[in-house]
Amino acid sequence: MRKYKIFAIVCLLALWATMTFTNSPASIAQAQNQDPEFTELRSIEQKLSSTSARQNTIPPIKKKKMLAWLKAGLYKDLFTAEPNVHGSTGPHGGNVRTYYNPILTENLRQGKKTWDVGAAMVKELYLSSATQVSGYSVMIKVEEQSGSDGSGWIYFESFSGSADNAFYGKGIQICANCHRAGVDFLLATFRP
Ligand code: HEC
């Protein structure tokens, strides 16, 4: 019996030591700070937060926050919606409806052909339904220049509405290669 007690205490100590010395929040934060992608996202966040329209009109750029924001549905009130759900002419899975954020809406109304930093589109993916949203595509312009490789944009697409298996990143080539043919990467023909 005593042996088991000692064994249990040793196990607990080992567990405590592992938790204390390996994955402490400080060491995780430090690792993230050194991750170039993390640093870049943070500096993009800072740049966007100085944009006066930041409040809910530019989707959060981090994947999980973005998804939570999408599901909260605020874009429906703040963005300009295409009049109808319609079949996608691209590889976007059946029926879609695109929304432009106020920055993009304003740029389009002014007749511009390139968009300001913070311009964003949200596309609801309905798949074969006409009423039930299953997933989302999102693009956010995060640099003055889109660049011929589309590296000035953050791209996101999830067909299932889950962050797992989502396409996500800055300058994703699979998205940019096709969107490059649009007006400053905008392919939808709806104009507010
Ligand atoms: C083969 C071409 C093609 C590829 C690849 C593609 N798209 Fe699209 N996308 C389209 C077309 C065409 C539209 C216009 C609306 C429609 O018909 O669905 C569109 C529309 C969109 C929109 C609405 C704004 C706009 O430009 O019209 C978003 C957001 C979007 N796509 C995101 C993405 C993301 C993210 C990826 C990569 C995971 C991607 N797209 C890959 C063709 C493509």
Concise account of the structure shown:
With 192 residues, this protein is an alpha+beta fold. It has a domain of 126 residues: Cytochrome P460 (Chalcone isomerase), CATH 3.50.70.20. It is built from eight helices and seven strands, in the order H-H-H-H-H-H-E-E-E-H-E-E-E-E-H.
What does this structure look like?
The protein is of the alpha+beta class and 192 residues long. It has a domain at 54-179: Chalcone isomerase (3-Layer(bba) Sandwich), CATH 3.50.70.20. Helix content is 40%, strand content 18%. The chain has 8 helices and 7 strands; from the N terminus they run H-H-H-H-H-H-E-E-E-H-E-E-E-E-H. It has helices spanning 2-21, 25-34, 36-49, 54-57, 63-72, 75-78, 102-109, 173-179, and strands at 80-81, 86-87, 95-100, 120-127, 135-141, 153-158, 167-170. Strand 4 (120-127) and strand 5 (135-141) form a beta hairpin. The longest helix is centred in the N-terminal third of the chain and has 20 residues, at 2-21.
Percent of sequence in beta strands? 15-25%
**Share in helix:** 40-55%
Gap between N and C termini: 77 Å
Going by helix content, strand content and strand pairing, the class is alpha+beta
Described by the principal axes of the CA atoms, the overall outline is globular
Largest sheet: 7 strands, antiparallel
